Amino acid sequence: MLLAAHSVLLVVVLGAWVVEAFPGGAPIEACILENPNRPNHPGTSPQPPSTLKHIFTASDAYYSPGSTIQVYIEGPPFKGFFIQGRDAHTNEWIGEFDKSDDTESHPECSAVTHGNPRPKSRVILTWRAPLDRSGTVTFTGTILNSYSVYWSDLIANVVPRSTVPRLG
User: Fold this and answer.
1) CATH fold of 2-163
2) Mean pLDDT across the chain, nearest whole number?
3) Residue 60: which of 166, 164, 165 has the closest Cα?
4) CA 31, CA 137: separation in Å to the nearest integer?
């Protein structure tokens, strides 16, 4: 029991160091922390959801084998994000995100994160469904403005591609 507690503490401490030390996105450890999908920034807490000024949407919630869904983040400039695809019924990690020049993908836990700390106003992510099933997916995660200003436990609203709202 004591060994398990030390292991959890070690993962949390290492996760905090890695997130702080590498502005190129959240590490794979972000998937397994006590509060997954959330920065481990000591002395900080997520902002209230009512203060979020970003639009976080997905083009669909239903997938078939190998299909793709677009996930959008748009709004005032932000530095980073960490998004996961999860089965809507079991909450298990499913599918994977395509990697791009500006993102890092963690297929082991169906996650994608920013690839650099440069401010961005719009991000379009592509999620690929598993080849062996169909079902419903939710996209959950964090949008980060700065070390101490972030919104966590967000769930993307489903808005068909032709009606994705644009800020402007």
Assistant:
1) Immunoglobulin-like (2.60.40)
2) 81
3) 164
4) 17
